[in-house]
Structure formats: structure tokens, C-alpha cells
Amino acid sequence: MCAEQTATFTSFDMSYLLPSPLPVENGGTGQTTQSGAISAAGGMQLCRARVAANVAASAISGGTISGATWTNSSPVITFTLASVTLVAGMSFNTSGLTTVVIRSVDSPTQITVSANPGTTQAAPTTINLLNSTTTTWQSTSFTNSTIVDSISPLSAGDVLLFTAQTINALRGPWQIVTITSGGTTFVRPNWFSGTSTMPIFVGITEGISYRNFLFVVGLPSATASNLIGIETINSYLQNSRADVAVIFGNIFTGKNTFQAGALGSGAVPFAFQAGSLMTTPQAHSVEWDGTNEYVSTGAQFAGSISGTTLTVTGTPTGLIQVGMLISGTNVTANTTITAVGTGIGGTGTYTVSASQTVASTTITGTIRCIIGTFVNGAAGVSGAVPASSSAIGRPGQMAFDATGLYICTAANTWRKVAITTF
Predict the structure, then answer these.
(1) Residue 95 carries which DSSP code?
(2) What are the phi and psi torsion angles at 40 (to 5°)?
């Protein structure tokens, strides 16, 4: 028979198995949930859309402070009577107090606000209270028909980033609790409440203008901590998409160098959207009507018209060409140059399409030239960007070398743009 044995266990230090601080997913910031830990550590959160315009908080029915006075050098407001229970985070729509909220209720007749008022109120007055606290607020102007950055409808549970609130403390993320035709109730997300010591990254998941934008939301500069719902909340754009490409208004005011791509890269230097040509061609513009590509050039000169004869005096800016549409003081609309006389691109005479009498004036001529069939680069047609006009090309590509600008009008066939000004 064996004697009874008692086991003795020695405790060992196993702290090395739990690194300090703990990973965020294990609540290593003193928080009890992952979302709380992410919030305390700064972290990354998501909002459905950015609200880039002020949304007014609604007034509390019967919510007023009577007999109030204050100065613009102190955040303390004294009064005689409050018609509702005052709590931190309540805001106002009274002049001088529109950007602040109640920081603390000091006594039945005194409150301290989050910053000095913007004006002094010496005579007792009545302050209207708005429906906001440190964690909730209500708005009758924000309803179930509200469209935010082209997103509609919005619904309960959606988290939105408000960046333009007049009341500083109401900026930042809010979650919709209820949304009806009569208004909306918001609450702070659980990851954005209490005291903030770190900024939070907020990504926008939907919308036309702000989808995939990244904002940093949190403390103003030189602020060590921020009681959310009381103090100013700022949001700064950290990262954004490139602007959506536009198909109009691309006007260069000076000379521009177009960098040629390497052969075999498959890139396309320009892509144009098909559309109607401009009613009046504009000098230096490039257009595509779906089939042909056009470049417009221009000239300006001093000239007079008698009958159908245009007489050009002085040296013109640019080359005068047959087919040019001309305009100027008293020049008949849609007049074009139909033939050359003694002038060959410069001073001399030309024939115009409409008989008229025009005294000497400054005349501008523009002409649209077809420079080849263009294949829309955006369609994904493969091919290399030519390093010069002598390189292999495909229809629709532009290239340049020391002698001028070229368009590839057929496979490996380059056509020099036959104009002097581009």
C-alpha cells in the first residue's frame, strides 16, 4: 500500500505569453470590447456617408432659460429659472451662443459653457435650448427623404460623418436611431463617446463625392484630451480619390509638355468621349465626334470687308486659311473665308462667304481640321504609347518629335498636323 503523496506546484511567471500592451483585438487599451479598444487607440472606423452641410438641431418644446446674462470674456452664464432639467451637451440658438454647449451645470441658476460666448448679454434675456446632449441629438430638418451625397434612402443604423456643424460639439460621427418624415434622432456610436485622447480614422463607404475618402476626426491642435459632446471636434481630410475626370473645361493657359510613354507599356496618352462638335470652333481645342478627331487653330488680324472682299492689313497672329470662320465687330455671323486673293496666309485680300461692309476692326478666325479617325483610348484597345512619330502606332494616338505634332490615322501611319498653331 502506497503512502498518500501531496503534490506541490510552483507558480511560474508567464507574463511573457501576454505581451504588454495587449493586442487591440484582446482589449489591450483598458477597454472591454474590441470596438472600444479601437476607439481608445485611434483606430479605423467606417461611416456610410459624409454630411458636408450644417444640419440644425431642433428646439426643445418649452425648453428655455430665463433671465440669463453673460460676458464674452467668461464661459459662465447666470440666470433665474430653467424650464427643463439642464444637462451637459445641451446647445442654444441664441446669438453669441450658437457654437457652444453646456459643459457643466454648476447650480440651479448657473451653467458653464464649452467656450466663451461670442457676445456680451448684460440685460436678462431668455435662451432657447436645442435638443442635444453629449450622446444624442434630434433634428426636424433631417428626415427620411433627406439625400446625403446622392444616397437615399437612409435608415436606422446608418452611421454618418458630420463635418460642417455650426455647433462644434455636434461634429463627428453619429448613428441614426429613428428617421421619419418628422425628423431624426441620432446617438453617438459606441466607438466615439466619452473622453477622446487619440484621433480616429473614419472611412466613407458610399456616396458620389466622398466615397473612399479618409478623414481624421478628433482633437483640435494643442489639445491633450477631448470630452466628446462638449468640446470642439474637428475633421481633417487625410486621403481621397482622384477627382472624377471631366470632358469639358480642360483649358491650358500656357505651353504644356506631353510626356511620351515607353513602347510596350500599353498606355494611351489621351482619351476623348464622343459627342457633338462645338457650334463655334475654338482655337487650340481637340474634339472627337465618335468617328473623326479634330484640332482647331486660330488667327487674329486687322481687317475690313467690302462686299465679299476681306482686306487684311498688318501682320496677323497665326495663319489665315480658307475655311476659317471669322468674327469681329459688325461681321455677319457664320461668315467664312472661301478663297484667297493676294493674301496667302498673311496680309492681302481674301474672299468671304457673305457680302457686307465692315470698317477696319480686329477680326478673329478659327478653323476646325480633321486630323484622322480616332479610336477611343478608354475602350481598352491595346497598344503602346509611341516615343516619337517614327515609332509603331495605332489609330487615334498622338505623338510628337522635334518637327511637330502627329496623329496616327492608320496602323503605323502617322500624319503631321498641318497647322502652325496648336
Answers:
(1) T
(2) -65, -30
